[in-house]
Write a structure and sequence with these properties.
three-stranded antiparallel beta sheet, homodimer
């Protein structure tokens, strides 16, 4: 299996929330793809944040693509030069007012390796605590929800939570919990 | 939590592989998002296909967004009027030549509910069999790989497989296996 060759590349649109590129590609067999679209995005982050009582710190918000309201993990975009971990800590504090805790990287995945050029860093933060400094700006519209483990599993099992970058990280988290549970 | 209101909507591009829309949205607090981008796609499908020997039927292919070669689940796009299950069966046969088996829906998720309007139907197909009628067209470039369960888990654990719509479905599959394994 070989990589394909980019023959030409041009930007269709470069806006803060959408950068789209059209590439002309040649496959190893010589076939030409005259228009292959790539969406360029910065690094994305999300976090499975859990407090000392074992509650998951989630956010409810409107998602316009599916035109519905979802309960999701805290997520966001890394700023220029910002490390993924710093971005995830910042997003958690901004959106929920929770800070601190023990952080680890859970998985690094892509919403679509065919059409997107960025990666999503998915963290786990245990024993986070509220510090009361939540600061949304007027372009954000979300409410914080504390969910029990069984409620989060219910959102996953019922396909109520749909964001694959979040469900992938959560299913991996719960898989590892199950795998490590003591047998009788 | 309320939905946002679409005030205006216009298409930037409508091509077979990229349809992008710019909406002007009003939040419940009255704030206006002058340019909110939505990518419109048809229904997507993928399948965890397993033969009678317990081997996972996977495909290796180049993914231009990340400019790298990945081992992935069979996946594709539902055609106009095609049911997701029929699309997944067709894609499995076209890409690998495997057919038959017992099929079930594993999860229905979204690559990004904020910016995409479509859903991905993720199936499990057990006891699939090769029928020798693989038929790729010249725009496709992939090789079939049969992987053991431990190899698939290795691709997931190491973040070698990165496509979130696939890793979410696979982690759910392995979670349910772990959950249902008999305790000693």
């Amino acid at each position: 299996m070989e990589k394909w060759t980019t023959l030409e590349s041009e930007y269709l649109i470069r806006r803060p929330w959408l950068t789209a590129r059209r590439d002309k590609l040649m496959m190893p067999n010589g076939h030409i793809h005259p228009e292959y679209y790539v969406l360029e995005y910065p690094t994305w982050v999300n976090v499975i944040a859990i407090d000392r009582q074992g509650r998951f710190i989630m956010v409810e918000q409107y998602r316009h693509g599916l035109d519905d309201i979802f309960t999701e993990l805290v997520a966001g975009v890394a700023e220029d030069g910002e490390e993924p971990l710093a971005a995830a800590r910042r997003e958690l504090e901004e959106e929920t007012g929770y800070t601190g805790g023990q952080w680890e990287l859970n998985t690094v995945i892509s919403a679509n390796p065919g059409s997107q050029n960025n990666l999503s860093y998915c963290f786990i933060a245990r024993d986070v605590e509220p510090n009361g400094r939540r600061h949304l700006d007027e372009t954000e519209d979300l409410s914080v929800k504390l969910l029990e483990r069984s409620e989060v599993l219910g959102l996953l099992t019922s396909d109520t939570m749909k964001q694959a970058l979040m469900t992938a990280s959560l299913w991996k988290f719960f898989y590892n919990e199950e795998k490590n549970r003591p047998t009788v």
